[in-house]
TrEMBL record:
SUPFAM superfamilies according to UniProt: ATPase domain of HSP90 chaperone/DNA topoisomerase II/histidine kinase
Pfam family, one: HATPase_c_3
Gene3D superfamilies according to UniProt: Histidine kinase-like ATPase, C-terminal domain
Protein name, UniProt field: Uncharacterized protein
Length: 683
């Protein structure tokens, strides 16, 4: 005798397997990807609090009969219905979200209705979540045999019979919809279909009667409207009568914690593009490779070579791989993981200009001659460069070293593997020209002098009022720049009110979430907002002066004076990076050698540096600059390059080593990934 399964079992199964809204989103988006869609649109609409919706639906259900044969009972029922209609409309107007998607049209429909059943229907659709994909869709037979069959091995069989990346295999993804809401409406079509296939499910039907068997619940796919000309096939899943209230922050949390993990960033297949919206406002989806590599540590090996294509033409190739190491941040997650990259000429043109002629060279000497001109070290005569010119670039080395070391101390202590707040604060204090303190009370301020920057911990056991008093006293007594640290969402949302109520000038105040304190670059950029009369800005000015002196007249296009002026506006970092991209490669490489390569630097930037260094190295191997190498070999750069394996390594030796030896201490995003639009996971 076979087992009998009650209808309630489907609800219990969904509740056990889909334990959170994030998992539900993950499963539904994963299904879209498995259906062959390269893009999925998720739209969350929240017009009315769930509590208000359920309360009004309860009131409507309690209204008496309005069509009873008994005149007295019918009239009484109609009076109650009219009163309920007026009351509930007022309740809807009071609680409706004015910025919700389609709120004006929806409220217009509410006002226009004179029927409680119609109002109930509008309430059921007040809040919804839709998932739209453009995959291969489902036929009526697919809906019946696959979608309505829980635990089908359809995806597992597809995984075995194709080379595609199939994420699902258990056949329980459709149960995710019941986690999100009580009503489900599916519209789908395959390429062969001329009409949409429609499926509607009310999950309450599965729990209405105790002991009801699952086969007794009538769920049947139906043929829908004809597909319009130009309409794309695919699947739309629309969930209404939601169980919980939704907000922008809740959807953003799911984007960070669940959707970003949709695909392994180490696989080479194309990824799905996910667009999230809450009430029409786009919610960005972070790229998983950025999240992962921010906390990873790896070894990079690269190779640059001149190659011949199959058709006989020449091309350049810049390739390599990254081996990710186990660190305190990643644990065992990255063990034995490798990612590769391979740039051809077209790819490299996006990184460096003036390389077109590289495709046309026929021998090594021609390549060397071309590199001489391309890098900008000489313009006409390769013999025009002199020992004196090279020496002039390094006359101010000691001055630059002192300033650069000061900056590097901050980066070295602020690597992304440190998450302890106290350790981070101690790291900030290493910056010799900035006095930084954290204060738990007003009394802690007594006897403290000479403050320049104060990191104020908002989350200590005190109220908002006391925190404002502490901040106000710091500002009045020291005119110090205040960085308010907190991980409370309401603090970030109320940042401007906090500043205004504390009577702080906007230029002397910044908010910084604690979880971002582990990012050296974030902290450093925050310090760049410090006003012009502070010690921090003086230090940056000295660094700029040292750069100007070190590189002399060769880089007048840097317009360093403008950088100084823009420091106060917080534009220095962006401006400086843009300027570096315009440098001749030999100056750029020299700058790179004078920069600490550690966890604070993006991996993509380091690959660009390495490529620039390689081109310069090619130039240095020519007879034209042989005399200059004697000067370069006398310089020691180990303080600036932790990758040096020997304290006696010279610049020349480091160049050579960087081309063949593993490079450690490089962090950041994958250089071979193209930038995607904000809010998208790469296709």
């Amino acid at each position: 005798m076979p087992f009998k399964v009650t209808a309630r079992t489907i609800l219990q199964l969904g509740g056990e397997l889909i334990s959170s809204d994030g998992i539900a989103f993950y499963e539904l988006i994963k299904n879209a990807f498995d259906a062959g869609s390269k893009r999925v649109l998720v739209d969350v609409v929240s017009r009315l609090p769930v509590e208000t919706v359920e309360s009004i639906l309860d009131q409507i259900s309690n209204v008496g009969e309005t069509d009873s044969p008994d005149v007295q009972r019918r009239d009484k029922g109609r009076d109650v219905a009219a009163e309920t209609l007026t009351r509930t409309k007022n309740l809807i107007r009071e609680n409706a979200e004015p910025t919700a998607k389609g709120i004006v049209e929806w409220l217009g429909d509410v006002e226009a209705t004179c029927d409680l059943d119609e109002l109930a229907s509008l309430l059921l659709d007040a809040n919804s979540i839709s998932f739209t994909d453009f995959g291969h869709g489902m036929s009526l037979e697919d809906l019946d045999t696959n979608y309505l069959t829980v635990g089908t091995p359809h995806r597992k069989l597809e995984r075995l019979n194709s080379n595609k990346t199939i994420l699902g295999e258990k056949g329980i993804g459709r149960l995710s919809t019941m986690r999100l809401g009580k009503h489900l409406w599916v519209r789908t079509a395959s390429e062969a279909d001329q009409y949409w296939n429609v499926l509607e499910i009310n999950w309450d039907d599965f729990g209405d009667e105790l002991g009801q068997l699952i086969e007794d619940v009538d769920v049947e796919p139906k043929k829908g409207e004809k597909i319009g000309a130009g309409e794309k096939r695919g699947t739309m899943i629309w969930i209404s009568r939601l169980h919980e209230n939704w907000s922008y922050s809740k959807l953003a949390e799911i984007a960070n914690d669940d959707i970003a993990r949709l695909l392994d960033p180490f696989i080479s297949s194309r990824r799905i593009s996910v667009t999230l919206k809450f009430n029409g406002q786009r919610v960005p989806v972070p790229r998983m490779n950025e999240i992962l590599t921010e906390r990873s540590h790896g070894i990079l090996e690269t190779q640059f070579e001149l190659v011949e294509r199959k058709n006989g033409t020449k091309d350049v190739r810049f390739s390599g791989h990254i081996d990710y190491l186990v660190s305190s941040a990643t644990g065992e997650k990255l063990r034995d993981r490798r990612a590769t990259f391979d740039y051809c000429y077209d790819d490299l043109c996006g990184l460096f200009s003036d390389l077109q002629a590289l495709c046309e060279v026929t021998d090594e000497q021609e390549l060397t001659d071309l590199l001489l001109t391309t890098t900008g070290i000489v313009t006409q005569d390769p013999n025009s460069i002199s020992d004196e010119q090279v020496a002039a670039l390094f006359d101010s080395q000691d001055q630059f070293k002192a300033i650069s070391q000061e900056i590097s101390n901050v980066f070295a202590d602020f690597n992304r593997r440190r998450s302890d707040l106290n350790a981070i604060i101690e790291g900030i204090k290493l910056f010799p020209r900035v006095k930084v303190e954290t204060f738990a009370s007003k009394e802690a301020l007594e006897g403290v002098d000479g403050l320049s920057v104060v990191f104020l911990d908002y989350d200590l056991k005190r109220g908002k009022k006391e925190s404002q008093e502490v901040a106000r006293d710091i500002y009045k007594s020291h005119r110090a720049f205040i960085v308010l640290m907190s991980d409370k969402p309401d603090v970030e949302q109320d940042e401007e009110n906090f500043r205004r109520e504390t009577k702080l000038l906007r230029g002397f105040f910044r908010y910084l979430p604690k979880h971002r304190l582990i990012d050296a670059e974030t902290v450093y950029r925050t310090l760049l907002f410090v006003p012009d009369n502070s010690d921090v800005c003086h230090t940056i000015h000295e660094l700029v002066d040292a750069l100007e002196t070190t590189l002399g007249g060769n880089i007048k296009e840097l317009e360093l004076s403008e950088i100084k002026e823009e420091l106060v506006q917080g534009q220095a970092v962006r401006r400086f990076m843009n300027v570096l991209r315009t440098l001749p490669l030999q100056d750029y490489a020299i700058l790179c050698e004078l920069t600490l390569v550690d966890e604070g630097h993006p991996l993509g930037d380091y690959i660009r540096r390495l490529f620039g260094a390689y081109l310069v190295d090619q130039v240095f191997t020519t007879v034209a600059v042989a005399g200059s190498l004697k000067r370069l070999d006398q310089l020691r750069f180990t303080e600036f390059l932790p990758v040096a394996s020997n304290p006696s390594d010279s610049l020349r030796e480091l160049y050579a080593a960087s081309l063949v030896e593993p490079i450690t201490n490089a962090w950041g995003s994958h250089p071979w990934e193209k930038e995607s639009a904000p809010g998208d996971v790469d296709e």
